[in-house]
TrEMBL record:
Keywords: Cell membrane, Membrane, Transmembrane, Transmembrane helix. Pfam families: UPF0060 (PF02694). Belongs to the UPF0060 family. It is a multi-pass membrane protein. PANTHER family: UPF0060 MEMBRANE PROTEIN YNFA (PTHR36116). It comes from the Bacteria. Its main location: membrane. The chain crosses the membrane at residues 12-30, 36-53, 65-83, 89-109. It comes from Salinisphaera aquimarina. This is YnfA family protein. NCBIfam families: PRK02237.1 (NF002586). It is found in: Cell membrane.
Length: 114
């Protein structure tokens, strides 16, 4: 059971980083006047994101996406801080905590309902 959580966590974090990086390339291109060449690695990152989510060991895609959502929020705030230099505020952290808790309930609950 521990192996499931550690493997899933690594996959979810990898997916979140890939999605955020891929989406950020579009943000940089459209909002920060970066070159359109930024989109090429962004598209690869988004493809990696989609691939990684298929590696989650659950029976339904919607459940994988729902659990992923909470971890994505927390990872987005880490990106905000490390990549964009903006420190998350207390409301960001409370919201991320709630979302991550919800994701954990989905993941743990799935294991008990098998």
């Amino acid at each position: 059971m521990f192996q499931f959580y550690s493997t899933s966590t690594v996959i979810y974090l990898g997916a979140a980083l890939a999605e955020i990086a891929g989406c950020f390339t579009f943000w940089a291109w459209l909002r920060q006047d970066k070159s359109g060449w930024w989109l090429i690695p962004g598209l690869f990152a988004l493809a990696l994101f989609a691939y990684l989510l298929t590696r989650i060991d659950v029976t339904a895609a919607g459940r994988a996406y729902a659990a992923y959502g909470g971890l994505y929020i927390a990872t987005s705030l880490i990106w905000l801080w490390l990549a964009e230099g903006i420190q998350p505020n207390v409301w960001d952290l409370v919201g991320a905590g709630l979302a991550t808790s919800g994701a954990l309930v989905i993941l743990v609950g799935t294991q008990f309902s098998r």
